[in-house]
């Protein structure tokens, strides 16, 4: 099925100029075309249309895979009264792991919730070696790619891949013209400067291989 994803501005992530009123044509899991919305609609009048506010960009890579998924506990909402809703880190995590041993099942559940938080920040890949099978399985099941990391990035770890980084530094790879996986993110900001200033929490949609894996309600 053909789907056109349209946004106020499309940034390709390479030397191609931004496309105001741009759009992507997605055929299954592949990106079939990139260009002005009017041109894609005229060429493919039966395609399903998804309109997004703001900026459509390449998907982002979070450099803190192990730190955010294997050294942190992401609470279940049913644990909110006891643990809150934010990731449990540092001494609090050490105390939690002592009181309630982190079994493979618990690691896997925490990682799945952590991955959902990452998707809500436009993340399509994580960098760094994941050593726990349950965590790696949670990442692969969603479709995030695992990238090699040659040095530990400057901290502190953040769910926001744009914290301390430019879009060019955070993007996994530029948007292809056609024939490769349709993997991208959309942010409710007017331009790249606003995105870097306000951060990836402005994400409204994340698409992995043509699949809409996150949509802000």
Write up this protein.
The chain is of the alpha/beta class and 217 residues long. It folds into 2 domains: 100 residues, Urease, subunit C, domain 1 (Roll); 87 residues, no CATH class. It contains 8 helices and 13 strands. Strands 3-2-7-11-12-13 form a 6-stranded mixed beta sheet, with no helix packed on it. It has a 4-stranded mixed beta sheet with strand order 5-4-1-6. The chain is elongated, with a radius of gyration of 18 Å. The two termini are 24 Å apart.
Mean pLDDT: 93
Which structural class is indicated by helix and strand composition? alpha/beta
Helix content: 25-40%
Report the oligomer.
Answer: single chain
Query: Which stretches are low in confidence, meaning pLDDT under 50 for 5 or more residues running?
Result: none
Task: Specify the CATH homologous superfamily of the largest domain.
Answer: Urease, subunit C, domain 1
Strand content: 25-35%
Number of domains: 2
CATH class of the largest domain: Mainly Beta
Major beta sheet, specifics? 6 strands, mixed
| Number of contiguous helices | 8
Briefly note the CATH topology name of the largest domain. Answer: Urease, subunit C, domain 1
Strand order of the largest sheet: 3-2-7-11-12-13
User: First CA to last CA: what distance?
Assistant: 24 Å
What is the β-strand count? 13
What is the name of the CATH architecture of the largest domain? Roll
Rg over CA atoms: 18 Å
The shape, in one word, is: elongated
Succession of helices and strands: EEEEEHEEEHHHHEHEHEHEE
């Amino acid at each position: 099925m053909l789907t056109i994803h349209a946004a106020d501005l499309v940034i390709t992530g390479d030397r191609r100029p931004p496309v105001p009123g741009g759009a992507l044509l997605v055929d299954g899991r592949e990106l079939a075309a990139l260009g002005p919305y009017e041109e894609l609609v005229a060429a493919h009048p039966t395609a399903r249309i998804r309109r997004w506010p703001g900026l459509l960009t390449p998907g982002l890579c979070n450099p803190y895979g192990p730190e955010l998924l294997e050294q942190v506990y992401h609470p279940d909402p049913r644990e909110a009264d006891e643990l809150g809703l934010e990731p449990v880190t540092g001494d609090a995590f050490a105390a939690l792991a002592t009181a309630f041993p982190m079994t493979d099942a618990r690691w896997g559940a925490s990682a799945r919730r952590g991955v959902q938080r990452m998707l809500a920040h436009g993340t399509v890949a994580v960098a760094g070696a994941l050593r726990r099978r349950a965590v790696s399985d949670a990442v692969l099941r969603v479709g995030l790619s695992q990238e090699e990391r040659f040095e530990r990035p400057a901290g502190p770890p953040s769910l926001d891949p744009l914290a301390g980084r430019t879009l060019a530094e955070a993007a996994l790879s530029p948007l292809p013209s056609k024939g490769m996986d349709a993997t991208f993110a959309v942010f409710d900001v007017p331009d790249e400067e606003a995105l870097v200033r306000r951060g990836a929490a402005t994400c409204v949609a994340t698409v992995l291989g043509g699949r809409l894996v996150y949509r802000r309600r």
